[in-house]
């Protein structure tokens, strides 16, 4: 496999940027992609500098990311309906974790209801199925969730299977990160009619994914992540505040019925995730692949609520349609309630004091984060070791230490790449 940036431990910023420009000049990538790569580097640098990462480590991380993106232009990976995370010979799971980790402010991040995650893990190990009905905020959601759980529930972090839309398996900038996750690949209802000539193909793809999901559930012991909204949350145009997008009743009803017909017992849990500042989506849903990617160093939050029992929540319903609608609405309300608690804890800086009867808040353990910081098992071992040192430096830096974004770059230029 060809590497465009082979000596990652000694690469300088100027070499990284010139390497990108050379790829454009040789017409191995479109000029638009080259510009997007440089823009991604700048945005990433500005974000993780705030968290304490050094210029050296930023270049090394981004060189690995851009190397994997370039490979997608040369030899595109095709995702099957059911994709298992690629961990060997290159560990794409660790690759994704290492990229997102410096963007998270762990000191001010919160987990809700660790005991419920304990319950979920126990059920999975007994061969039962669990489906998380969650809101969806960014392309980084899988990594954010895995990072928040890796200290308390590493088994859950790596067991998750995500029902993923077509964008994260078709955009060359997303594909390397998606390759490190277990995915069921579908087309979102929001985009299924974008190209009329492809509607039939998309429906057949969704049918295959549904069949694969049924097979997995029959096996048992599956942890499935689904965003019934069919896309990412967006801020309220009137208030500018973020909240979970409404849920599609049919998405929940389909997976609930699949679980009912599988031999293994199945359980549904409402989950809320707050992480939009890590990688905010465009304000409006876009049809074209290749959106501009903004990044931020930010605190995040994750909470899971008690199991939802369909019979108990639909006792007063007169029809199966009404019951399905009532259950979906209740799921959305429970996600919203948890999201509100996370918002008070993270955005309003209330911390654990924002806990309620529904959500008991705690924090990822700093000491465990340091111990587990990075697994050095992927191909670029020198790269992984240097990134580990960067992460530990981030943790040791005093929280109130000022960071100069205009410090002299490695090639002697001061802020030459700034906009």
From TrEMBL:
Transmembrane segments: none
Localisation: Plastid, Chloroplast stroma
GO cellular component: chloroplast stroma
Gene Ontology terms: biological process: phosphatidylglycerol biosynthetic process
Acidic residues composition bias: residue spans: 402-419
Origin superkingdom: Eukaryota
UniProt KW keywords: Acyltransferase, Chloroplast, Lipid biosynthesis, Lipid metabolism, Phospholipid biosynthesis, Phospholipid metabolism, Plastid, Transferase, Transit peptide
UniProt-listed InterPro entries: G3P_O-acylTrfase_chlp (IPR016222), G3P_O-acylTrfase_N (IPR023083), GPAT_N_sf (IPR038114), Plipid/glycerol_acylTrfase (IPR002123)
Renumbered ranges of motif HXXXXD motif: 136-141
Keyword Translocase set for record: no
Protein's job: Esterifies acyl-group from acyl-ACP to the sn-1 position of glycerol-3-phosphate. The enzyme from chilling-resistant plants discriminates against non-fluid palmitic acid and selects oleic acid whereas the enzyme from sensitive plants accepts both fatty acids.
Protein name (record): Glycerol-3-phosphate acyltransferase, chloroplastic
Organism field: Adiantum capillus-veneris
């Amino acid at each position: 496999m060809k590497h465009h940036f082979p000596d990652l431990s000694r690469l300088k910023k100027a070499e990284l940027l010139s390497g990108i420009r050379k790829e454009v000049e040789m017409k191995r990538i479109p000029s638009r992609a080259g510009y997007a790569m440089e823009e991604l580097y700048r945005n990433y640098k500005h974000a993780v500098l705030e968290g304490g990462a050094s210029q050296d480590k930023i270049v090394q991380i981004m060189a690995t990311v851009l190397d994997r993106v370039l490979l997608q232009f040369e030899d595109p990976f095709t995702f099957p309906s059911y994709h298992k995370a690629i961990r060997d010979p290159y560990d794409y799971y660790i690759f994704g974790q290492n990229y997102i980790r410096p963007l998270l402010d762990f000191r001010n991040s919160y987990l809700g209801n660790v005991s419920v995650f304990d319950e979920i893990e126990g059920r999975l190990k007994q061969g039962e199925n669990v489906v998380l009905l969650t809101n969806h905020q960014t392309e980084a959601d899988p990594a954010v969730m895995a990072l928040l759980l890796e200290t308390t529930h590493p088994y859950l972090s790596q067991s998750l299977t995500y029902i993923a839309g077509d964008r994260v398996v078709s955009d060359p900038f997303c594909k390397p990160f998606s390759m490190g996750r277990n995915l069921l690949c579908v087309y979102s209802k929001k985009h299924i009619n974008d190209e009329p000539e492809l509607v039939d193909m998309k429906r057949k793809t969704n049918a295959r994914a549904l069949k694969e999901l049924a097979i997995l559930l029959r096996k048992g012991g599956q942890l499935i992540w689904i965003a019934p909204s069919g896309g990412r949350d967006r801020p309220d145009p009137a208030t500018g505040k973020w909240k979970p997008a409404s849920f599609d009743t049919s998405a929940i009803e389909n997976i609930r019925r699949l679980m009912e017909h599988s031999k293994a017992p199945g359980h549904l849990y409402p989950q809320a995730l707050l992480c939009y500042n890590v990688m905010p989506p465009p304000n409006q849903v876009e049809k074209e692949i290749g959106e501009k990617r903004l990044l931020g160093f930010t605190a995040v939050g994750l909470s899971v609520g008690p199991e939802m029992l369909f019979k108990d929540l639909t006792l007063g319903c007169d029809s199966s349609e009404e019951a399905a609608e009532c259950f979906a609405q209740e799921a959305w309300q429970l996600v919203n309630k948890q999201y509100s608690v996370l918002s008070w804890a993270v955005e309003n800086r209330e911390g654990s004091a924002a806990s309620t009867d529904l959500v008991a808040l705690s924090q990822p353990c700093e000491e465990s984060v340091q111990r587990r910081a990075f697994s050095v098992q992927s191909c670029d071992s020198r790269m992984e070791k240097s990134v580990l040192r960067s992460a530990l430096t981030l943790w040791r830096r005093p929280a109130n230490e000022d960071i100069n974004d205009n410090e002299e770059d490695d090639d002697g230029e001061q802020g030459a790449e700034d906009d």
